[in-house]
Write a structure and sequence with these properties.
The structure is a single chain. With 264 residues, the protein is an alpha/beta fold. The protein has 2 domains: 116 residues, Alpha-Beta Horseshoe (Leucine-rich repeat, LRR (right-handed beta-alpha superhelix)), CATH 3.80.10; 110 residues, no CATH class. Helices cover 40% and strands 19% of the residues. A 10-stranded mixed β-sheet has the order 1-2-3-4-5-6-7-8-9-10, with helices on one face. Helix 4 runs parallel beside helix 5 and helix 5 runs parallel beside helix 6. It is elongated. The protein starts with a strand and ends with a helix.
């Protein structure tokens, strides 16, 4: 088992050769944990041992944020969402939900959950499935506990249903807090919806565009939100988010800052 402690975060990865011994060790770590609020694990370490994972969650009293990599298995998601604990309020699923058949069951589990307040689905790659985006936005509109969503969406095109639903949600709802957009053509109406979500609704604080078509005029309007503090993060990148995240083609901070300030 490899354990990393950083600030209030506890990152745990298993050694496959000693899986049976790792479970008791993890249990002791969590029982003794009094300060680490974030638990970062890999779903791969618990395949076939989902009941062990669920018991660890149910014995938890300190961890409030859960980060689970590679959550592409329905049994893992059941363990996360069906655990009888009120302590977990934030869920982040990096490199997860990449199998289309798992998206609908995920939405059903999310719909029934009453403890999570924040859901982070802002991964290196975005969601292209139109039906999933629509279903997710619809269920969060009626959700009793979830107040903040971080989301990465790909392939928003002019007047397609994905754009229509995103515009409607940005204008009407107040749960989209952070948004990444990739491989998209951005309309004037979509920019106005982003502006409304940030300036009027005061909920959207983070917007990044990757390999997307955005006019200079629309960039300038969004930059006005960045300049006055409504948007805490605003970026326009020619590369994919995957390249930016792994650092292979990352532009310098100076270049991004220059692009922003050129609109002032």
């Amino acid at each position: 088992m490899v354990v990393e402690f950083k600030n209030q975060s506890l990152k745990v990865r298993f050694n496959d050769s000693y899986h049976n011994g790792n479970i008791p060790m993890l249990n002791q770590l969590l029982l003794r944990n009094k300060i680490h609020r974030t638990l970062n694990i890999s779903a791969c370490d618990f395949l076939g041992h989902e009941s062990d994972l669920q018991r660890r969650f149910e014995s938890n009293r300190t961890v409030t944020e859960l980060i689970v990599e590679y959550s592409n298995n329905i049994d893992i998601l059941n363990a996360i969402f069906n655990s009888k604990t009120n302590a977990l309020h934030q869920l982040k699923l990096p490199q997860s939900l990449s199998i289309p058949s798992i998206l609908s069951p995920f939405c059903e589990l999310l719909k029934k959950n009453t403890t999570f307040v924040e859901i982070d689905l802002m991964d290196c790659t975005g969601f292209k499935e139109e039906a999933f985006i629509i279903k997710l936005l619809d269920l969060l509109r009626e959700h009793k506990s979830i107040r903040y969503l971080s989301l990465h969406v790909e392939d928003i095109q002019l007047s397609n249903q994905k754009e229509t639903y995103m515009i409607k949600s940005l204008r009407r709802d107040k749960f989209i807090a952070r948004l990444c957009i990739s491989e998209s053509i951005i309309s004037r109406e979509f920019i106005e919806a982003l502006y409304h979500a940030s300036k009027v609704n005061d909920t959207l604080t983070y917007v990044n565009f990757y390999n997307s078509q955005v006019t200079d005029e629309d960039k300038a309007q969004l930059h006005s939100l960045y300049a006055c503090g409504n948007l805490l993060q605003l970026g326009f990148y020619e590369q994919s988010r995957w390249h930016i995240t792994v650092g292979e083609s990352k532009p310098s901070r100076g270049k991004s800052t220059l692009e922003f300030h050129s609109y002032q």
